[in-house]
Every structure is written in C-alpha cells, then in structure tokens.
Amino acid sequence: MAPSLAIACQAATERPARALAPTSRVAAVCSEVQASRIGHKLDLPSVLKTPFKIVHGPPSSSAGNPAEIAKLFPHLFGQPSASLVPSDATSAVSKQNLKIGVVLSGGQAPGGHNVITGIFDYLQEHAKGSTLYGFRGGPAGIMKCKYTELTSDYIHPYRNQGGFDMICSGRDKIETPEQFKQAEETALKLDLDGLVVIGGDDSNTNAGLLAENFRSKNLKTRVIGCPKTIDGDLKCKEVPVSFGFDTACKIYAEMIGNVMVDARSSGKYYHFVRLMGRAASHITLECALQTHPNITIIGEEVAMKKLTLKNVTDYIVDVICKRSELGYNYGVILIPEGLIDFVPEVQQLIAELNEILAHETVDEGGLWKNKLKPQSLQLFEFLPQAIQEQLMLERDPHGNVQVARIETEKMLIQMVEVELEKRKQENRYKGGFQGQSHFFGYEGRCGFPSNFDSTYCYALGYAAAALLHCGKTGLIASVGNLGAPVSDWTVGGTALTSLMDVERRHGKFKPVIKKAMVELEGAPFKRFASMREEWAVKNRYISPGPIQFVGPTSHAINHTLLLELGAQARTRMIQ
Amino acid sequence: MAPSLAIACQAATERPARALAPTSRVAAVCSEVQASRIGHKLDLPSVLKTPFKIVHGPPSSSAGNPAEIAKLFPHLFGQPSASLVPSDATSAVSKQNLKIGVVLSGGQAPGGHNVITGIFDYLQEHAKGSTLYGFRGGPAGIMKCKYTELTSDYIHPYRNQGGFDMICSGRDKIETPEQFKQAEETALKLDLDGLVVIGGDDSNTNAGLLAENFRSKNLKTRVIGCPKTIDGDLKCKEVPVSFGFDTACKIYAEMIGNVMVDARSSGKYYHFVRLMGRAASHITLECALQTHPNITIIGEEVAMKKLTLKNVTDYIVDVICKRSELGYNYGVILIPEGLIDFVPEVQQLIAELNEILAHETVDEGGLWKNKLKPQSLQLFEFLPQAIQEQLMLERDPHGNVQVARIETEKMLIQMVEVELEKRKQENRYKGGFQGQSHFFGYEGRCGFPSNFDSTYCYALGYAAAALLHCGKTGLIASVGNLGAPVSDWTVGGTALTSLMDVERRHGKFKPVIKKAMVELEGAPFKRFASMREEWAVKNRYISPGPIQFVGPTSHAINHTLLLELGAQARTRMIQ
C-alpha cells in the first residue's frame, strides 16, 4: 500500500494560470480517482471515427396535436430524423471553422462535462480552428452573454468528472420576447454558428423554440439539444435514455445495498429510503431492480390504481407483519420523492388547504377544518401531527402549501407506527419496529460518471457537434443501439418537435416535451412486479457496491435500459 | 459494454443447500462486484507465510490506575506484548487441532467477515482439522450457546464482503455472574480452546474479563480481542487503527465530495453534513482531510475551548458572510454526530431539564422555565422552537431527554438562518442562504471493505488465530507498520489490560478501555488546523470518488493513519 496523502493533480500543473476561472478546479491537489479519471480514454462509435454523411428518415410528426405544433414551429415542424453513416467521400462534411456555444441547463447530472469535451474534441478533429464558448450559469449566461472560451487546457481537468462546475448551470428560461431578443443579440455578437443546449424536457423544449426563433429571424445560429436528467424521464424511441440516470441510480443503489446488509446484520431496523425523482419513479424502479428491496412504491402505480395514503400504509404494514411472522423484524423500503404528488386524495387536500388558508383565519379550536370536504378532513386527521403542522405553517411566497418539503419517508414511518400499534392491540402483530429514514438525492447528481455515462455523453457531444457541422437545427442528439458494443452504437439526431405535444396555459397553446413516466406495461415494471412478492418475504438483497471504473465489473449498464432494449429487440423479432 | 442483468453468484452454486442459514446470503444472484470481491486474493504479512515463533516484550502496565487493574485481573495483569517473528524450526507451533469460537459484537464495521475468514484460513493452514464456531447475534450467542459451525462453503460468499450478516451481531454484554457462568458452560460444552471477540472498546474490555474469568476457573479457553469500530476511537500505540474506519470514511468522503461538486455547480446551497461518530470526531476529521470542506466542527476542540452553541453558530455565520463577500453563497460544513455532547452548556441544560421534567408539571405559560438557571434558560431560548419541543416531548423510557434524536445539522441550519437574518437587518450580510441537511451513517457501516480494510482484517484474523494457537489469552490482536507494504506488516498481540483504566461506577471500580479521542496536538488535527482557514474562503474541494478495488487508485490508506504513522516515524527519528 503506497502511502499517498493527495497527489499533484496533473490538470492543475498542465494548466496556465490565466485559464483559471473563479469557480474552476484550481486546487493544487485532487484525489487519485479524479486524476486517474482525467486520463481515462473513451471509445467512440465507429461511425464517428470515419468520414460520415447524414441520411434522413421520413418526415416526422409530433407526440400529440401535430396541427398545433406545426403552427408553433412553422420552420421546423416535420423535420426528418438524421442518422450518421460512413461515407467513402472524405469531404462529406465541410472543413469550415465553427463558432459554437454550449450551455448546461437545470439540475446536475453526471456526464455533462463529457458532452462538452465531446463537442470540443469533435471540433478539434473535424473543424480545427473552431471556437467553443461555454455560457456560464445556465440560460442566463446566454441572455447576459456571460461566457468562457473553452480551451484544451481549460476543459482538461473536467474530463470524466462529475458536476456541472466547468461552466455551472442555472434554471432560468428563455421565454419572453425580450429574452429571445437577448439570445439573438448574443448569437450575433459572438457570430455563433451553433448552440448546444444540455438539459431536460423543459430545456429541450426551449432549445426547439430557440431554433425556430433563430431560423425565423434568418440567423445562421443552429440549435441542438442533448438529453440530460438523472430522473430518466426524458426518453423516446430514438433517445433510449437521458444521461446521468445510469450513474445516479448506481450511486443510490450502492447506498441501498449497504443499508440492506446493515439491516440484515443488525436485524432490527426498517430503513425507509426516499429517492430523488419528483415527476416519475424511474430511479426508484431502477434501484429496486438493482437491489431487490422488500417493498418498493412506484408513484405511477399509485396514481393508476388511485391508491390512498391509507392503502399505501396498509400495504407496507401487511408486509411488515408477514415478515415478522417469518422472524424478520427488519427490512428496506424504497419510496419515490414524488410519492405524494401521485396520490389523488392528497392533491385534493392540498388544493382545499390552499383555498382555505388564503381566505380564512385558522382558529386554535380547529373550526376551520369544517371547511374541508369530508374525505379531505378524514385524510388530514389521518396524517401525523408533525405533517399537519408542516402543511399549515410552511408556505411558499405565494402562500401555497410546500408539498416538496414534506419528508415522505418520515411521514410513512409515523403512519406505519400507528397502524402497527393498532394491530398489536388487536393481537395481530407481535414484532418490534424501528424505522430509520434516509433521503438519497444530492449525493447522486454530481458523482463521477460511470463508464457508461462517460462514454455515452462523449458520443452525445460528438453527435451534437457533428449535427451542427452538417447544418442541422432543431434536433436532439441521439445515440442508440446502446446494448451493443460502443463501436456499434448509432449516432444521429431526432426532431425536437417530434417529442412535443401542447398544453393549454393561460388560454394559449404551449409546446411541451411530455415527461416519460414509468410504464406499467413496460418491461422494467413488469420484471419488478413479477419479483416483488418474493422480495417482500424472502431476503433477496443484492449489494451492487461502489461504481468501479476499472476491471470486469466496470461495464455494467442499468437494468431499465437493458430491459427496454431487450423488449424492443423482442418486438422487432416478432414483427 | 456487455449486457448483464445479474450474474449467477459463484458462491450460491458452490454451496450445498444444507449449509444455508436462515439469514445467510441465499439469493440465487448477487452483483458483479459481490462476485468479483469473493474471488479477490489477499496478501499476507510475510511473517504469516513462514514458520514463526513468539517473542515477548517487557511486562506491561495499564493505561491508568495499575494497582486497581492488577486487582481486577490478578491472572492477566502485566502480560507482555507478543510479536510473531520468523522461526527456522518448522514446528514452532504445535500441529494440534483447535476448537475456536468467534463472535461479532456491537455495530457493524466493514471487514468483520475478513477477520473470520482470516481465522478460518489460518486454522486450515496451520491446524488442519480444527473447528470454528460462529456465535450468532453477538455475545448473546455465547450465553445461549447459539452458533453455526463455519465451513469452507459457508464462509465462502462472505469473503471481502461488507456487513456482519455471516453470523450477525448484537449489543448484549456478558456482565453478571450468571452471564459469566453461561459463557463458561458454552466453553465447556463446545470444548473451546479459544474465543475471538471482534468488537469495540466495551467488547474488548469484556474480552479481557472473560479471559481473566476463564483463567481463574482453570478453563482451557483462551480469549483474544480484535479492534473493530468505524468510529476510529479504539487505538493505541500497538493498535494503530480499528478496522472499518478506513472504509466508512471513504464512503462518507465519496458522498461529501459529490455534494461539494454539487454545491459548486449550482452555487446556491450550504450543505450541512452530520457524520456518524458519537463519542469522538475521528470520522469527521478524516473526511475533512480527504475532502477539504469550508467548515468542520471537531467535538474535542469544542469541548477543550468550552465553546457554546452560540460560539459555534457565530463561527459558521462568520465564514458564510466572508464567503458571500467573495461571491460564494454556497459551501459544505461537516458536523460530528456527537457535537451536542461536547458542548458543556448543553450538558448542563439537559441535566436541569431531566430534573425539572421529572418533578414539575410543565405549564403552557412557561412558568416552569424559571426553574432553569439563567445560563440554561438563555440557551433554551436560543434554541430553535422545533428543538425546544423535541427536548420537551421526546423522552426515553427513563423519562430522560433523548439527545441522540436531535438532528444537529438541522438545528444548526435554523440557528444560522436566525443569525444571518439579524446580520442582514444590520446590513452586515447581503447574500442568499439555503441550507441542505444530510446524515451519513448507516450507509458506511456495511459497505464492501476497502482493499486496506480487507487485507488488514484478514491479517487480524490470522493474528488472532495464531495467538490462540500459541496459547495466548487476554491479548488484543495487533497488526502494525501499516504504512509499509503488506509483506512488512508486523503481527502480534497486546495485553488488553495495558489499554485499561478504571472508572468508579456504583461505588465499584470497573475496568474500561478509554476511547481514543481526537488529539488536538496530534498530527491529523494539526494538519487540518493548518489548512482550515484556506479551505474556509477558498474552494479547495477534493472529490475522492467511489472506492476502487482494482487499479492504481485502489491502494489508498486513510489520512489519519498515514499522518499518525508519519508523526511516529518522525518521533522515532528524533529519539
């Protein structure tokens, strides 16, 4: 074991002082893993290693309401998808220098830096002399024309590293006519040939609108989106997975696996683990497939079956009682962060509370509660007192109840305790129960990208740059065939408009990319559903361990993707 | 990327069904990392690969009150330490078969399974035909004679795996004459030549008492302890580190590093991270040395300087204000789980509350508060309301305030918010503050042991078995020279009585192994203290990443151990 406190970071020494931005990784030292990951060489899909050309698919439509989408995107609607294929001509793509901007939008996801290095390396390889601008702090950086010119030295220390700190991110949106104007000014000022927007569903919708707007103003600036979100809810047939999902789930699954072994070793705790992912439960489902917990709540199933909190509590308590009879007074339970949002009765209660609290004074005696509808009152009384108080006291600046602040896992522990106590009184349960709550969230957003996400993101960056280089706009970069070796991955772009539907807001149609929810008929959920009864009463725990970057265990891909790919392959075979 | 959902666990197929215990790893599948770790080959110190003999040091004393320890351990007091050295005789140790028991005591720590496999493999190698019994569920397993005979097949799937689930653990103590009698009966019934007690300070004190008791009753059963605890507070000159500390700190540091990158990427959160370790702050200090957070609170320093909660809050707020002026409205703050126990004024308040709440009725108007001494009242009023309520409402079965339930990180966030708001009113602070709380605890106790802990524990197990084989009792297994290559590690045992002092309890002297606290004059704290001002205002974050088992980054050792070894080496050079 060679003693080593901290090794000189190669990056820091190689990098001239002038290139250092205020927020950048200027520390004189970095960890061994940081240093070793910087030097990790990434494979590329074969088509990106040879001269290539673009072939087009048939004209596209939209995910819904094509007539409205066509009206909102008169220049872009109907674009075919683009695929890169090898070309025997060496000059399939012009050698012209490009000026490209890139922006990170929204919450962090492991691999964002690799999209940027992919863009950079593509430009170095195929359009030497090009310039890459990194807009700082998200879309606000575009509007304020706040950017850093990304050089080889500058980006070097971020290769295969987690986080978005190379240029940071932000949650601003480019929405109003003034904001679009600001974006145009930046595009003109920097003479941008293209812009890559790395973001989730909202950001990619925005990318589409920007592309349409630039085109309508006859600006040369083209826009390509990249699918980012650990939540895994931005995907479609041609975009099999959003980046970051693989890494984040592996980090959460590592922790869950550890907690499972702990539960089995001490034999006395029920661990309630809340997992990030508000809108969809993909993360929770994936973590369940990786670790085999005793109980997993999937929000989409709760919504589909119109379950109440009482139903969910009873389900958990039933399993706890059954396990207790088998001699197991411990277990692990996974809960999606957004569970409450999936429970119809909670939505109803929140709506009534917002209304009442806006207009009534809340009397100590509780007379205000009479304003609640009977079912909502019943639910309110069912909630633990701490949650009742939280609902009453913690309001956002608009006076609304802050549902997101509710620690669902703690709420469930309290409700389970009450129900177990009741069953104990009725002599239906004799076990002991100690709940431990966990929330795994921020730990997973900025981890080192797995080998899969590192390679996938690098290919996405290459793809985005290649699409811009070929004059494409209004597409989302897509890399497919991900179950095959990297050399066989497909590369191209899909019309952003083809992912869109419209929503009516303030009397107007707004384009939206619909979030991909967990499909109860999809292969991942069906696999889970076929196993959960066994996992509930038998202990089939699996401990995935920490992400490995070297060796045979470093090539795993998440189960959700593999199962979906398998299902697709089977569908193809049947057809 | 080879698709692989879950691979057949080699262990499960190799293992006859009859060997499967109810709580054991019977799943038909395990993760790739689980499978690959099972096959990981461990190096041994050279002395354990050759014929060896034992050499003895000078007679030992105790850590304090030698006269009292001598009275409590009339048969064992003064034993010299034992060192294994190579022997040219091939028969330095008898070939006799042994019957050995092993027990896991107290909270989990990564590497416990490897101590057991080390004992097992030693017996296979040096005393073929021996029997190893694993007492189930901790010391209760000894008293109830509840055990599993550990066979090659049985232990195989637990090689290099985290957790204590091979035989599980428990927190019972062997204390009363009846309990000692039960232990004697088990020793006689199983005809035990030896017992290895794997545990922390309390368990090793117990191991010493058992050894003394067996000796005094002329039983042949000898007892050897092994130093276990993630808290790192069981160590002395000859036992440089307790096992599990290395792995747990690396797991926590991985998460802290991720959260740091997240903080820098989004630029808007202060992450307050509470870390396991109630009695001593070694874990917090080690994580700080690995990751360079902006603020780290070390309990021992708080106690030494007699800081109040207001002092701690002000220190945090001062740094936050300074950082805000530099443009950083984010940061990472590490807090030891036991912080509150280190604050003298809190201890005083708790004592007064316990007294008052036992005898007074608590009136709504708050008149009861007049019973508090002025300083305690001032502290009580300074605490956030939620914490006040927690102190009043949540009592243990003895009616005492449950200090351990207080979420220190949330309490500090609230106190910091109040103070920042005050400074904002006074125009001394203009920044934005959003606190995020984390508790990293259970995730670290059962992770896969790092290569260091895997190898160290295996050597400890070998050492314990060798000491028993040589007829030793009342020693704690010690493996030293840990900064050197494994082949040069030293192996031996140290008299448990030499670690002991006495405490007066219920009018009697009780032997105790004193917890090793963070020494403010020690090399690890001094290194930290020399850097913390720079870390506070500049961002020197280091992201250690996930533990790697393969490749150049897999050989790191924790900083605390290295710094202490370095300091020792320097001391030796000076002498």
From TrEMBL, chains A, B:
State where diphosphate binds.
107
Which cofactors are reported in the record for this sequence? Mg(2+)
UniProt site positions, description: Important for catalytic activity = 228
Tell me which residues bind substrate: 229-231, 268-269, 276-278, 337, 442-445
Its Enzyme Commission number?
Answer: 2.7.1.90
Localization (cell) = Cytoplasm
Q: Which GO terms describe its cellular component?
A: cytosol
Pathway in which this enzyme or protein is active: Carbohydrate degradation; glycolysis; D-glyceraldehyde 3-phosphate and glycerone phosphate from D-glucose: step 3/4
> GO molecular function: any one?
ATP binding
Domain called Phosphofructokinase: residue spans: 99-467
Q: Give the reaction(s) catalysed.
A: beta-D-fructose 6-phosphate + diphosphate = beta-D-fructose 1,6-bisphosphate + phosphate + H(+)
> Which InterPro entries does its entry note?
ATP_PFK, PfpB_PPi_PFK, Phosphofructokinase_dom, PKF_sf
The family database entries (Pfam families) matched by this protein are listed as:
PFK
The residues responsible for catalysis, as annotated, are: 231 (proton acceptor)
Q: In terms of domain of life, where is this protein from?
A: Eukaryota
Q: How is its activity regulated?
A: Allosterically activated by fructose 2,6-bisphosphate.
Q: Which UniProt keywords apply?
A: Allosteric enzyme, Cytoplasm, Glycolysis, Kinase, Magnesium, Metal-binding, Transferase
Q: Which GO terms describe its biological process?
A: fructose 6-phosphate metabolic process; photosynthesis; response to glucose
Annotated site (Important for catalytic activity and substrate specificity), which positions? 202
Is Cell membrane one of the keywords UniProt gives this record?
Answer: no
How is this protein organized at the quaternary level?
A: Tetramer of two alpha (regulatory) and two beta (catalytic) chains.
Family annotation (PANTHER family): PYROPHOSPHATE--FRUCTOSE 6-PHOSPHATE 1-PHOSPHOTRANSFERASE, PYROPHOSPHATE--FRUCTOSE 6-PHOSPHATE 1-PHOSPHOTRANSFERASE SUBUNIT BETA 2
| Function field | Catalyzes the phosphorylation of D-fructose 6-phosphate, the first committing step of glycolysis. Uses inorganic phosphate (PPi) as phosphoryl donor instead of ATP like common ATP-dependent phosphofructokinases (ATP-PFKs), which renders the reaction reversible, and can thus function both in glycolysis and gluconeogenesis. Consistently, PPi-PFK can replace the enzymes of both the forward (ATP-PFK) and reverse (fructose-bisphosphatase (FBPase)) reactions. Catalytic subunit of pyrophosphate--fructose 6-phosphate 1-phosphotransferase. Catalyzes the phosphorylation of D-fructose 6-phosphate, the first committing step of glycolysis. Uses inorganic phosphate (PPi) as phosphoryl donor instead of ATP like common ATP-dependent phosphofructokinases (ATP-PFKs), which renders the reaction reversible, and can thus function both in glycolysis and gluconeogenesis.
Say which family it is in: Belongs to the phosphofructokinase type A (PFKA) family. PPi-dependent PFK group II subfamily. Clade 'Long' sub-subfamily.
What protein is this chain from? Pyrophosphate--fructose 6-phosphate 1-phosphotransferase subunit beta
Species in which this protein is naturally found: Punica granatum
